[in-house]
Design brief:
This protein is mostly helical and 69 residues long. Helix content is 88%, strand content 0%. The mean pLDDT is 84.
């Protein structure tokens, strides 16, 4: 491999990593803005009921139902 092709490959790797990093930052900001919507996501409620105690998960479920009604 000559020096130019090595430089090109390194540039492409850095460029792709930079794009991945920007997408990661974008997803984090979207998740921070929409945490209220994610709390009432059915998958989140199921996982929360498995992890937390029954009283807390019931309160969260009832809060989500009250928002819908």
């Amino acid at each position: 491999m000559d020096d130019d092709s090595l430089t090109l490959i390194m540039f492409l790797i850095v460029y792709i990593l930079f794009i991945i990093y920007l997408k990661f930052i974008e997803n984090i900001t979207v998740l921070r803005d929409e945490t209220e919507n994610l709390k009432c996501n059915p998958l989140y409620l199921v996982l929360d009921s498995m992890v937390s105690n029954p009283e807390d998960s019931t309160k969260k479920f009832e809060g989500c139902i009250k928002k819908l009604v």
